[in-house]
Every structure is written in C-alpha cells, then in structure tokens.
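Holo prediction — adenosine-5'-triphosphate.
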Amino acid sequence: MELHGITKRFPGVVANYDIALTVRKGTVHALVGENGAGKSTLMKILYGMQKPDEGTITIDGTTVTFSSPADAIARGIGMVHQHFMLADNLTVMENIVLGGEKLYGIGPKARKKIMEISDAYHLNARPDVLVEELGVADRQRVEILKVLYRGAHTLILDEPTAVLVPQEVDALFDNLRELKSEGLTVIFISHKLREVLSVADEITVIRRGTTVGTADPAHTTTKQLAELMVGSELPSPETRDSTVTDVPMLRVEDLHLNAVDSDGVVREVLAAISFTIHKGEILGIAGVEGNGQAELVEAVMGMRDPDGGVITLDTTDISHAPTRKRRESGVGYIPEDRHRHGLLLEAPLWENRILGHVTERPNSKHGFLDLKAARKDTERIVREYDVRTPGIDVTAASLSGGNQQKLIVGREMSHTPKLLIAAHPTRGVDVGAQAQIWDQIREARRNGLAVLLISADLDELIGLSDTLRVMYRGRLVADADPATITPEQLGSAMTGAASGRLEHAPEDEAR
Ligand SMILES: Nc1ncnc2c1ncn2[C@@H]1O[C@H](COP(=O)(O)OP(=O)(O)OP(=O)(O)O)[C@@H](O)[C@H]1O
Ligand SMILES: [Mg+2]
C-alpha cells in the first residue's frame, strides 16, 4: 500500500502535508509522532472518512479513491478508532453483525463465522454477552473482530494500547502477530515507544503533518525515536524527591459501594477501602481496569453515593456532598474518559476552559461570567500546556486526542486544587508532553497538592507515586514502595497473584 503526496487542510491547520507512506503486506507498521502531528487524520483518509486535498493512495498497484469507509472496507481496509464505537446495550454478536447483515445474515451463519474468526486469532469472543459488561480489552477484541468479519486484510489501530494494562498489551500483540502470520497487515499508532519497538516491523515518523523518515526497530532506541518525532533532544527527567507531609488531605475510611446487576443481584463494587493521602503526596492505585478504580474515583468525586464509610476532605466530611461542592472546595478532576466527563466536544476551547469551574476565578467576577478573563486564561493554558490549536474558538472536537487531554490537565491544574483526582492523566499524550505534565504535577505537589492517581501506565504509577496500592476485585489487596517495586511485581499483584506488602526480592536483581 502506498500513500503519496497526501495533503489535508482544515481551517487554520495543515493536518497532513505531502505525506509519503509505504506499508508492506504482512507486516506490522507503526506510525509515531507528537500530539497533533497528523496520524489520526492520515488514517481517516486511508479509511475513507476524510477526503485528502491532494495525493494518491495505491493498493496492490491500483490507485484508489475512497469517498466513504464502505469503499475502504470493500478494499479490505478496516479501522479501530481511538475511541471505541460499540453500542453498549447490544450483544457482542449484534455489534459485529450490525451494518454487515448482508454478509452472513443475522443467524447461525453469522454466529459460525464469528466463532471461526475468533478461534483462528484467539479473540475469545462471547457472542451473547452485552458489550456494556465487557472491559476495555474485550471491547477492543470485539472491534477487531468486527473489522475482520467484514473481510479486512489491513487493520488500522489508532492507539490500541493507550487503555490497556501491560498483560493486555501482551495479549493484543500476540493477536497482532497471529494476524501477521496469516498474511494480514496491521498499521498501528502508539505513543508508547517501547511497545512500538517490540512489535513493529517498520516505523514511519510524522512530524508537524509530514513524514520525516522511517526507522528500523531493530536498530533504533526509544530515545532516538522520540528525538526523530520532536526534531530535537529531549530533556532528561527530574529526580525523585519526597515532599510528603503528615497533614491528611483526603481520608477514605471503610468505604463500601454496591451495584445491582442487570439480573437484580446486588454486587460489591468497593469493599472496605481505606487510605489516607497527605498534603504533598501522590497515592497511586494500580489495577486491571474494571476492578473498582473507576467507581472509587466516582465515589470520591460525588458521582456515586457510597453504601458505607466516610470520605473526609481536609477536615470536612464530604461522604454525601454533591460533586459541585467538592469541586468548589478544591478538588481537581482529570476524568478517565475525556469525551464523557471532561469536555463538551462541540463547544469552543474557551467554553471548555470554564466547564466545571463556572463560579471560580478567573472565569467569574462578582458572580458574573468574566468572558474576557476566561478567554485570556484559555490562551494562557494553550501556551503553557502546548495545546496545538489554531485558536481558542475552534471546537474541542477538532483538537487531536492528545491535545484534548492537555487542555483538560491545564484547566484542572489552573485552579490550584488541594486534591487532584487524576485518572490516566497522560493517556494519549506524546512522550514530550507526558514529561511536561509529570513535571507540572510534581511542581504542584511540592506546593502541597495531594493526588489520587489511577493509571494503566505502570511507568507513570511507579515514576510519579509516593505510595502505591493495588486494587483487585473492589479491594485494596497490596501495597508497595515505588522506589523499589518492579513493573513485573506490580503486574502480578494486579492479577491477584500476590497480596500484602510487595517487597523487592533481592534475588530478582541478581538474576
Ligand atoms: N475535523 C477537524 N477539524 C479541524 N481540525 C482538525 C480536525 N481533525 C484534526 N484536526 C487538526 O489536524 C491536526 C492533526 O490532528 P490529528 O488528530 O491527525 O493528530 P494526531 O497525530 O492523531 O494526534 P494525537 O497523538 O494527539 O492523537 C491537529 O492540529 C488537529 O487539531
Ligand atoms: Mg490521534
């Protein structure tokens, strides 16, 4: 497959400029580049979702033009997006068949086909389960299955690993290798350069909209790759220094939360959760997604009412206080899903800057919205957090994924919170921006910020946290010292294989 001279302009932005990309059949081809470099746009063009202003796409020697995804699918190209697009209230099978009814009908033939594909690539499909009951890794497999069901021989995966924990990433990569061995082609986008080097056969680097080169994973380091992306040397990360005080900022005592299943059974979602986060402390919670981390965040934010226990912020009992009250008393919130809780996608950036902070300075003065100040402050955030955008009047939807994330982090940090609830704060941001966000969080911690950190990125958890706890099936089952713990140890505790105090075993080092 060859893309040649691809250019795509949006108002005020050249998203792609004179792109050249060659992908060989039966390979895993990685696409890397900074946030806003133009990766997703290029893939949407290849998938027929966007029309290029210039350039050609050649497949097997034939030049093609796609005016819709249906055209791309007919040519064997399928795409799994940065944000999944499944219908929660339908079953796995319904989701896969939806829109592809003509292929194998909706009955036994379709089911047989699904199971065949699932078995061939070890995708573990459970056709009759509702999608809403699946974790992220399973949802992703459904998306991949959906694409294969339509006969794709080239799969485009946009940041498939951003939402996965390490074990799930390994499983996905096994799937990809399997696809490859059957002669299928995979194009995938990732900011996790170590992963890119481990799974890709070839790498193409995009910088500011254009391809700047290719790299051979066998002879490239993550550092070299990062520098190719940025076009200059990266600053080295700062060293660890403890700022933990003995003043409690958030105390959670014996928290319980129940949920009622679709079949009416009461299930324990959180059980006997107790921890304290002090001023100047980052508490990291590790866990495979779906073990209660999201619910813990929602209970602390006031989006779920606990069935037992006490949550104390500073010295105030906030166990049942409304979300708005908690925010106003200095709780910053970086949500897990930036589209559901973090942004109004169709609203301009400056409105998104106000979102959740309407009554606070500088957005409000004497109880009235201060539009001028809010706009000015939006411009400051765009500058300080390096949000790549032509201006503050464009919609949040038009920003690239990583730039949307930077805007949220900038907004939440701007109100000098006492407590920051950060769920995957750097999900989807590039390595440079990630280092910058980490520095900003550390800087605020030095000034007394307390942070509850949830992350699927073990390097982030280990690198940022002062204290580490592991969550498994709604309970905090293990704790560890981030200074000595290894990602492998943490990973095994996350699957429930280890509990209690995770000590660093000296023989590990000897090996
Ligand atoms: N629909 C759109 N309207 C206007 N501008 C857009 C639109 N889609 C993308 N852009 C702009 O095009 C540029 C490239 O965006 P793209 O989403 O391709 O980046 P990316 O490389 O995928 O970044 P990330 O790593 O953050 O996902 C950005 O400046 C973005 O703001
Ligand atoms: Mg993108």
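READOUT: The first strand starts at residue 2 and ends at 10.
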